[in-house]
Amino acid sequence: MHSVLVTGGAGFIGSNFVRHLISTTDLSVTVLDKMTYAASRESIADLPEDRCRLVVGDIVDAALVDELVASHDAVVHFAAESHNDNSLNDPSPFVQTNLVGTFTLLEAARKHDVRFHHISTDEVYGDLELDDPNRFTEATAYEPSSPYSSTKAGSDLLVRAWVRSFGVRATISNCSNNYGPYQHVEKFIPRQITQLIDGLRPRLYGDGLNVRDWIHVEDHSSAVLTILTKGEIGQTYLIGADGEKNNLEVVRALLEAFGRDADDFDHVTDRPGHDRRYAIDSTKLRTELGWQPQFGDFSSGLADTVQWYRDNESWWRPAKAATESMYAAQGQ
Ligand code: NAD
Ligand code: TDX
């Protein structure tokens, strides 16, 4: 394998994955990204030009996708509309990008027999009760809740069907909530960090007891590279780092990091249909492919992430005001 096409490589996880490929392999990378509001050229601007090229385009554009897929050894497919709150306001781009876009890429991978890795989410499994002793495994039934998670679930099923019906050489990974550098300020952790940098109060949906299973984005990247190089075709792997925390705990950890009072936050309108808890059992990935998370200490990962947002205000500042106006319009 010499060249990889990374869709969505100017977004949060995609750009971190491209950095990981450049620093740990000899692969050359082409990023295909539509440069939506969620993308940033700065996230990959400092990478060597002879190893990383950006093509601005839409994964729904079949002619462009066909040409790019044909000239690469593998595709790693991150591109998506990724934010649940946006999917509740306007599901249309979620259906286009997450479903039609994935279909378009699969057709090209099928035609040119190119290795395909599909990036997905634990949200396809719906949610768990807080006291449920079980966690999600590769055998858990799909039960997505939101327009976002249902379009991701549909995209996973397309990949499975293209493997079985057409022999496409694909793998799938479903990962838990990522945090780390280059994450858009609409998402929970960067939103609260940037509120605190601005001297404002964190905004907690509902009672704040919803649980997310946090993983550092660098661990997601190493897991994806492991699956790309060692994964068995047709298999699904769950990626997680045993990082369950409720949202209130995360907000309190951030308040402490900024030297603020533990109750210095606002409860705001809850997300409609808000999933209660996600939790990943990543035994299969660990035992079959030998992957281990390296950034499992959430408090030091969070401290590094706070520092990154303090040091990189020029990266996030342009998106902050528009994001907060969007939230204000829905009482969040
Ligand atoms: P993001 O919103 O930060 O980035 C998405 C990128 O895709 C952006 O650069 C955007 O411009 C690009 N894009 C969107 N529509 C496109 C189109 N039609 N054509 C080409 N490019 C397009 O998202 P993220 O948080 O980095 O998530 C990346 C992937 O990982 C998604 O597939 C998401 O479902 C999955 N995932 C995310 C998380 C998480 O915690 N953020 C967890 C598990 C899985
Ligand atoms: O201001 C906020 N206050 C708040 O309490 C925001 C933005 C969120 N929340 C809550 C909602 C969730 O319980 O925090 C939790 C995390 O919210 P998000 O960052 O929006 O993430 P989530 O909805 O869990 O989805 C994320 O993880 C799975 C990604 O956005 C998805 O792309 C991924 O598939």
TrEMBL record:
Broad class of enzyme this protein falls into: lyase
InterPro entries per UniProt: dTDP_Gluc_deHydtase, NAD(P)-bd_dom, NAD(P)-bd_dom_sf
Lineage per the UniProt record: Bacteria, Bacillati, Actinomycetota, Actinomycetes, Propionibacteriales
Co-factor requirement: NAD(+)
Gene Ontology molecular function terms on file: dTDP-glucose 4,6-dehydratase activity
Keyword NAD: yes
Alphabetical keyword list: Lyase, NAD
Similarity annotation: Belongs to the NAD(P)-dependent epimerase/dehydratase family. dTDP-glucose dehydratase subfamily.
E.C. number: 4.2.1.46
CDD domains per record: dTDP_GD_SDR_e
Catalyzed chemical reaction(s): dTDP-alpha-D-glucose = dTDP-4-dehydro-6-deoxy-alpha-D-glucose + H2O
Name of the gene: rfbB
One matching Pfam family: GDP_Man_Dehyd
Signal peptide: none
GO biological process, one term: nucleotide-sugar metabolic process
Domain called NAD(P)-binding: residue spans: 5-295
Top-level taxon in the UniProt lineage: Bacteria
Name of the featured protein: dTDP-glucose 4,6-dehydratase
